[in-house]
Amino acid sequence: TQLLEQSPQFLSIQEGENLTVYCNSSSVFSSLQWYRQEPGEGPVLLVTVVTGGEVKKLKRLTFQFGDARKDSSLHITAAQPGDTGLYLCAGPRGGNQFYFGTGTSLTVIP
Amino acid sequence: NAGVTQTPKFQVLKTGQSMTLQCAQDMNHEYMSWYRQDPGMGLRLIHYSVGAGITDQGEVPNGYNVSRSTTEDFPLRLLSAAPSQTSVYFCASSAWQFSGNTIYFGEGSWLTVV
Question: In a 3-state reduction of DSSP, which class is residue A83?
Answer without folding.
Answer: helix
